Amino acid sequence: MAGGVFQCPPDFEAVAECDGSAAADAEVWLIKAPADFTPQSFNSHRFPLSGQKMQKVKDGGVKKYYHVVSLPCAPLHLRAFLQSSGDTEDKLVAAAPLGGVITLAEAYGDHTAMHSVPDQPPVSLPQGLKQRYCPFGAVAPTIGKVKRGDSQLSESAKKPKKAKKRR
């Protein structure tokens, strides 16, 4: 930098300030996708510009499932350079600023079927330990013991009360 003015190196061509005139009405999004991704398989599909979606597509006759996550980003001063279609020369023109990021990740398996969640087995205490805390409304477990006031017991199972001797 001589005298405060930038001098372009001899191998480079000087370019004026980018104004985004390549496609002023277009929005540019960065798409992160797997290596074997084919963009043509997503031609007729729509995605939310903020959020996620599970998308089923046909790629060469094979059904594939993709997790699609879209995140808009704050306006950045980063711009992509695209080939200008009007000129015959290979010139690059600055595109509009990035609008966000779309991430595609391939999902495996059938996601349309309902999957049940197995029930948890009831909590059991190890042999020899007794429960010291009883949550509100819970009934303490009784193993092999029967409460005295149970109305379902037969009369023969009840123990007779012993009378105390008075002296």
Automatic annotation (TrEMBL):
One Pfam family, short name: RNA_polI_A34
Name assigned to this protein: Uncharacterized protein
Domain of life: Eukaryota
InterPro entries documented for this protein: DNA-dir_RNA_pol1_su_RPA34
GO biological process, one term: transcription by RNA polymerase I
Region called Disordered, residue ranges: 145-167
